[in-house]
Structure formats: structure tokens, C-alpha cells
Write a structure and sequence with these properties.
Number of domains: 2
Strand order of the largest sheet: 3-4-5-6-7
Shape: elongated
Number of strands: 7
Mean pLDDT: 85
Largest sheet: 5 strands, antiparallel
Helix content: 40-55%
Radius of gyration: 23 Å
Order of helices and strands: HHEEHHHHEEEEEH
């Protein structure tokens, strides 16, 4: 079964459990105790047959009280109604790139399926693992119950390990794929500014290769009148050199060292000159 087929089946079969694609991916790759195993490059439950897309009604036991029987009937009606609504939008849900999780992620460990990807993993399932890593990186903890900053930091650490393992064995998905959460932060933050008057180019190198021994990463923002260069000074990605100059001359350039938050504020200010309405807050 392809990953998209499994996502579709899960969204239809359990409409009250899974609201979005990322919910299914989270269950597949992060949650322990599901019975899922890597077999033939896919995650399957060897003890269970593949279920139907249509959710089954919970049985109503005459031995139960009338109140409990009525509760089960109403639950079944609600699930059938949700299934019918879900059918109308299922294709969009399966292909959705919305990676925002409602609530926190299950705590990752060496037993998580994300950490046990086999060498014969199928390409679409490997892409799903990368989606989960991106979702973990993007997650903003609410601070409630298990969705704390500490829990997020724990999962980011394991997601970094998973990403390194994937890239070592299968290579990068493209030249701009980050190698860590630290590298992802500026990449994601600056990407949010792209378009609507601001174009962008990323040049990712390593010390001693593309940019000599000083810089390990560079982003270039092109505005209508100015260019902005963002250089990461080391692999912590919290020390940046930001340079701005006019498009048609090297004169009048400014340079300043700053941390990540200052760099992102400066980039937002730069993008705001081109199109204030396009700058996210």
C-alpha cells in the first residue's frame, strides 16, 4: 500500500481520530505500541488485515442500559455523518501540506518508526518520514500538559538524528534541505518572506568549500532597489553577518553582526520595504 493510500484509508476509517494528513503521519512514524512494523519498505500491522475505508459501527449490546445503547447509536451516527463529509474533501486532505499538529507530538525514542527506517524503504514512505521531521521542526508548543518547550526540544533532538540518518543513507531530497533544526530555522523564517516583491536564493555550503573558512551558509534576498545578504558565521546558526547594498552598485553597503532573532527582524524589515502587506507577523 502506498503512503497516500494509507493516509486516505485512515482519514476515512477513523474520521474522529484523524483530522488531517499530519495526524496520520504522526501515528505512523511517531507513536509507539501501534503494532506497525517495517515490512517490504512500508509500515504495516502484520497481525491485522487491511481495514475498509468505511468505518464500522460499534455494536449495540442489548445487555447494556438504554442510556449506554443510545450513546453508542449517537456515536455511530456522528461517525457516519463525519465520514460522508470527509468523502467530499478526501483528495484535498490526502494531499494537504498543512503540517500543523493540534497538541503535542508523541515523545520520540530509538523505538519510534521514524528512527528505524529500513534500507529498502519505498520512496513515498521515505518522503513521509521527511514530512514528519518538517512537522516536528515547525511545531510551536502551547505549554499545556505534554506540549511543553522541553518536550518539543526532546523531539527536535531525535528528529535531528533521524534527518542525519536519512541524509547519510539516502542523500538530501534537494540542495536546500537543511541538515538540522538549527539550519532549518533561518531557512524557514526567510522562506516565509519570499514572493510579493522579494525574491530569494540560498547557497548552502560548508566551511572551507563555498565561502572559505568564515561562512557556512548564505541567503540572498532581492528587493526592487536593494539586495540583502545573510551569512551564517558558524554551524550554530545563531551568529549572522547581514549585509545590504543597492542593486546597481557596491557602494553604500552596510554590514552588521547579529543573532538569529535580530537577523529575522532585519529581513522582515527589508521585505517590508518591498511590500509591507506580504510580511508575516
Amino acid at each position: 500500500m502506498t503512503l497516500d493510500e494509507e493516509v486516505r484509508r485512515s482519514l476515512l476509517n477513523s474520521p474522529l481520530l484523524y483530522k488531517k494528513r499530519v495526524d496520520v503521519l504522526h501515528h505512523l512514524f511517531c507513536v509507539n505500541g501501534t503494532g506497525l512494523e517495517w515490512i517490504g519498505g512500508e509500515l504495516v500491522d502484520p497481525e491485522s488485515e487491511v481495514g475498509s475505508d468505511v468505518p464500522e459501527d460499534f455494536p449495540v449490546d442489548p445487555a447494556h442500559s438504554e442510556i449506554k445503547q443510545e450513546g453508542i447509536r449517537r456515536f455511530n451516527e456522528r461517525m457516519r455523518a463525519e465520514y460522508e463529509r470527509r468523502l467530499e474533501v478526501i483528495d484535498d486532505l490526502v494531499q494537504s501540506d498543512d503540517l500543523r499538529m493540534q497538541g503535542g507530538f508523541y515523545p520520540l525514542s530509538e523505538y519510534s518508526r521514524l528512527m528505524t527506517i529500513p534500507d529498502d524503504v519505498k520512496p513515498d514512505w521515505l518522503a513521509g518520514a521527511r514530512e514528519v521531521i518538517e512537522a516536528i521542526f515547525r511545531h510551536e508548543p502551547t505549554g499545556e500538559r505534554d506540549d511543553t518547550a522541553e518536550a518539543h526540544a526532546h523531539n527536535v533532538e531525535w528528529a535531528d538524528k533521524a534527518l542525519r540518518d536519512i541524509q547519510e543513507r539516502f542523500g538530501k531530497s534537494d540542495r536546500e534541505e537543511p541538515e538540522s533544526y538549527r539550519e532549518w530555522r533561518p531557512l524557514h523564517g526567510l522562506r516565509a518572506l519570499e514572493g510579493n516583491g522579494v525574491d530569494m536564493d540560498f547557497n548552502v555550503g560548508r566551511p572551507g568549500t563555498d565561502f572559505g573558512s568564515v561562512f557556512c551558509w548564505r541567503a540572498t534576498l532581492y528587493g526592487p532597489d536593494e539586495m540583502m545578504f545573510v551569512y551564517a558565521c558558524d554551524s550554530t546558526f545563531d551568529d549572522f553577518l547581514v549585509a545590504v547594498r543597492p542593486n546597481d552598485t557596491t557602494e553604500g553597503a552596510t554590514e552588521e553582526r547579529m543573532d538569529f532573532a535580530q537577523m529575522l527582524d532585519r529581513a522582515r524589515s527589508f521585505a517590508g520595504k518591498a511590500n509591507p502587506a506580504a510580511v508575516p507577523r
